[in-house]
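Expect chain and fold; see below:
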Amino acid sequence: MGVFPAFGAWINQNSQQPLEEDPKSSEHVESKSASEMDNGPAKMKKYYDEDEWERQDKLWTAAEKKHPWKDAPPKVKVTTKKGICHMHIELTLGLPPDGVFELFTNPHNGPNTEPLLKSKSRKVLKDDGPRQIAKVKKAVAWNFSGRSIAIPISLIVDENRRDLTAKYKKEKMMFMKVFEGSYKVEPVYVDSVRLCKNKKPKSVDEYKKCSGGQGKIASKVTMDQYFQPYPPFNLPPFSWFIRDITIKNTKSVLERLQSWSFSIRNPGVIMSTNKHGKTEVSPKQ
């Protein structure tokens, strides 16, 4: 799987332990052809119920015609401690968790985030059931004095498709001494109050039972990202510039992801943000 292609390399959380890289797996992968090394998530075993996913898709599409869902604006909190900047992000998406995780990890399914982010290559280092570790190379667009410059970044990504969690650490990235993080996707039983009465479901099966199979499931995404520039870019005014542009790019990708989820719930319609920051809805061409 890719590293959050929909969000890019910007949205993740600090991993307290270094990501594992299996030497034997790495050597084995390096000996393969380029096509074998770039085997994306489409070849991974699926750990979700396809019938349930299809049922949720129909529920969301039908509900949008009567009571359109509106994603709440992402919550982004930024703090700095001992020179390391921490972004804590929470957002909800009107799509089931497995679908959201698929958007994050599959570069062929996510929204078009270029020119902010461009995928270059991906090599699987370890494939162990629902868990996969990969080396991912991307190019992130930064604006310097009105010019867009592609900054290369290499990450080691550890994803678990069953738990819907992921973490990563930078292997190489220009300007950044620290760049690492993680995220998780959790279910939100949006119709539980209306359909389950006084019962608060604790699992998908409980929710399906108490809602009579008519309850929609949304997703809550929680992310934390830590970054620190190398000297002298960790000092003002360089540090201010890098901090501001990282936060700005993060918010831009979050907005694109929510627009993409709207388009999935509303086939034939596209939501976008114009140059003035206003949301526009238009039919697909």
